[in-house]
Design goal:
The protein is α/β, with parallel strands linked by helices and 349 residues long. It contains 14 helices and twelve strands. The strands form three sheets. A six-stranded parallel sheet has the order 2-1-3-4-5-11, with helices on both faces. A four-stranded parallel sheet has the order 7-6-8-9, sandwiched between helices. It has a two-stranded antiparallel sheet with strand order 10-12. The longest helix has 17 residues.
Length: 349
Amino acid sequence: MPPRGSNSITVRDIAARAGVSVSTVSRVLSGPEKSAPISEETRKRVIEICESLKFLPDVHYARLQERKSYIAALLIPRTRPDSPGPFFSDETIGLFMSTLEESLCDHDYSILIQGVDEDFEESGRQQVILRNNTADGLLIWDAFKNPQTLVDLKEENRPSICVAFPYETAGNYIVPDNRQGALDMTRHLLELGHRRIAYLSGGMGELVDDLREGGYRSAMKEAGLEPLEFVGNYTVRGGRRCAEEILANHPEVTAVFAANDMMALGALDVARSAGRRVPDDLSIAGFDGTTHSELAAPSLTTGRLPMAETGRLAAEHLLRMIEEKDPEPVQLTLPIEIIPRASTGPAPK
């Protein structure tokens, strides 16, 4: 049966009015790049009839013929340990998704957003999203707890890219350079004269935690200094708890580097409550580059993650991988910008 438009007019109706075959109308509607030669007069007549009847081609039928859905699936965790609110309220997620959606939309692609938890992962529904042609490709944001899941997805032989957070087993990824960013932030504090720098880690045991912690440790080692680490679990409450322990038991500490802005804000709150002047008595730096860091008092030194750039590049490379028969792998590590602000200053004498 010929496909119907949204107003129940069929391609056969258009063909009868134009005095051409159904296949001719289909080729006109498919676009010039997919058509056998058709005279300009015929093409114009078919298009005018479609417009006069307000005929809208059945998009699903056309895409079925192409064996493409024009959908990119974004798999993300349903919850995130460092955010007390819904996952989509996270600022870095929002910046990434808005840029990603705009870039995909420019190429007539839509996004299928799928929240992932352990039950979803164990069910194997991520493979189903590809196998039933729901999506032409996958973008994966820190969604899977089991490394084998990514190995299984590779065997589907469909385009997939890990974004924002790294996976050791990922063949394709676009991620911030977490290790170098943490190294650069620690060096920033060292250049200000600080020698006892406490580090607040996420403590989640994931690769991103290891990379940021590794950057801090490397900078301390090259300066000939001993690391001093605390676990803050990426939360404001965790940052407060770590800062209270530092002020009570480590008065020699002159700078705190937190692995995200939320922990840094918690530490900043404790320092103010304890009468410690920031940065005169204690410098505090965060990581992520959220709006919270800019609005804090004093404004918070941070490392800005390249989330808009990640979204743009993710769309660009996923579309390239979808179109090419044997695409080259994409393995990009993007720099993190250190933003010095009022919360860090020279070490007290």
